[in-house]
Design brief:
Helices cover 46% and strands 11% of the residues. The protein is an alpha+beta fold and 447 residues long. It has a 5-stranded mixed beta sheet. A 3-stranded antiparallel beta sheet has the order 1-2-4. A hairpin with a 2-residue loop joins β1 and β2 (218-223). α7 (102-119) runs antiparallel to α8 (127-143), α9 packs antiparallel against α13 and α11 (224-243) packs across α12 (266-288).
């Protein structure tokens, strides 16, 4: 129940409109973000983000020199506050009652703190300057591990205050922007670590290992077959743990262009493919618990075209129930949103990485990483979400998979035949020359 003053505020009032009555509103709502002058944010919102492609990301690290490292640092230095500023303005255009939700307010404050910190960083002129900047980036990335669960909980709790299409547009915009910031930040951290590596010095012999195909976080020879095999093994293991060792497990049949390779960020592909295979394998296992015989296989086809690689995953798990289908790509709506909200409370942080999810309960005794040590791995990959228990349904696997697929100009589509199964089609841009698909710029006026 809202306090009396808060109840008098129309749901259409926006955050920026409320600055004159900020003291009364803050008292009324308790969780309202404090007022800040808009001039500085306006200045950054006027700037355009500069999207980058996988090919350009690898350019900085192909022949890594001090000049290229500092160029990368200054690109990140200007891009991060610009991209955050646009998303802050997006949040200011939400109905005020939505922004005062404690989860949404938490995200807003994290974003504003990051914006204020990052916009004040001066031009990076030396390697020492860069190392100090990497400490700032790492600390910010660690602080923002709570963003995804908090944002999703806020959206679910506020689902009656916004239209579903507005909710999903807002979530897609914020998540795509979050991906873009983590990609450029983590790529720069990886390049900095490479620059300081012993084998990077002149005349040093570079190690001959699989990591030599990485430029920062970009894997130049990402092989769809290998990723599918790894993710299917992981999904089968999790299903066996959930349903018992005696459960009948479907085979995963792989066919098509098995040698197809392309540049990609490996953790993105692992997450998308992992989610699709998890859904297919678990659906088949659950269906065949009540049917005789061996479960039908999950068929995966890899098709390599001149500019794309298409992965089709087909199962006979019974299809998607009719009541869930309309909200399949929605972050907030759906008949199971109350279950998702309860499960999200169990996930205080989500980057998500394999290290993080294996130690789900880091908050209950795990060792937190040193925020000032950028040489430690940053929790930036999404591959670990596929390690979560099957009963921990968060309602964001497919929507987030589509956001990740579309980020590099790809696509993800599902076709369900109720009573039979699902065909999922993942399309990946093969050449690495497509710019990241950034969200539209925010409006200058937050009304």
């Amino acid at each position: 129940m809202l306090p009396p003053v808060a109840r008098r505020i129309p749901t259409t009032v926006r955050l920026k409109d409320c600055y004159l009555c900020r003291q009364e509103i803050r008292w009324a709502s308790g969780g309202a973000p404090p007022w800040r002058p808009a001039a500085i944010l306006d200045e950054w919102v006027q700037r355009e983000a500069r999207p980058i492609s996988l090919r350009q990301l690898t350019f900085f690290g192909r022949t890594l020199t001090e000049y290229r490292l500092l160029s990368s640092a200054n690109y990140v230095r200007t891009e991060l506050p610009t991209r955050i500023a646009h998303r802050l303005r997006d949040m200011q255009t939400l109905p005020y009652v939505v922004v005062t939700n404690p989860h949404m307010s938490h995200v807003y404050e994290l974003y504003y703190k990051a914006f204020e910190t990052l916009r004040r960083v001066r031009e990076i002129k030396t390697v020492d300057d860069n190392d100090r900047y990497c400490n700032i980036i790492t600390e910010t990335l660690q602080e923002h591990l709570t963003v995804i669960p908090k944002l999703t909980m806020g959206i679910i709790e506020c689902q009656s205050l916004m239209k579903p299409q507005e909710t999903n547009k807002f979530m897609n915009t914020l998540l795509r922007s979050r991906i873009s910031r983590r990609v450029i930040a983590e790529q720069h951290l990886a390049l900095t670590e490479t620059f300081h590596s012993p084998w990077h010095f002149p005349d040093a012999k570079q190690p001959q290992d699989p990591s030599s195909d990485f430029v920062g976080d970009v894997f130049l020879k990402c092989n769809a077959k290998e990723v599918i095999e790894e993710c299917s093994q992981r999904a089968r293991t999790l299903a066996r743990e959930a349903f018992g060792s005696a459960c009948r497990m479907p085979e995963v049949n792989l066919q098509g262009h098995l040698n197809a390779t392309f540049p990609y960020i490996l953790s993105h592909l692992q997450y998308i493919v992992g989610e699709l295979l998890r859904n297919s394998i678990e659906a088949v296992v659950e269906r065949w618990r009540h049917l005789p015989g061996h479960p039908a296989p999950v068929d995966v086809l890899i098709c390599e075209a001149p500019q794309h690689v298409i992965i089709r995953i087909s199962d006979q798990g019974g299809g998607i129930p009719k009541d869930i289908l309309p909200s399949l790509w929605s972050f907030g709506k759906g008949p199971r949103s109350h279950i998702h909200l309860e499960n999200l409370v169990r996930v205080p942080k989500m980057a998500a990485t394999m290290q993080e999810l294996r130690a789900f309960p880091t908050s209950a005794g795990g060792i937190a990483p040193d925020a000032n040590d950028w040489r430690r791995p940053v929790d930036g990959s999404l591959s670990s979400l596929t390690y979560r228990p099957p009963d921990l349904r968060l309602g964001m696997g497919l929507p987030m998979s589509r956001v990740y697929a579309e980020y590099w100009a790809g696509s993800l589509e599902l076709h369900s035949l109720e009573g039979y199964g699902v065909d999922a089609f993942l399309t990946i841009s093969k050449l690495g020359n497509k710019n990241e698909q950034l969200s539209t710029r925010a409006s200058m006026d937050a009304v």
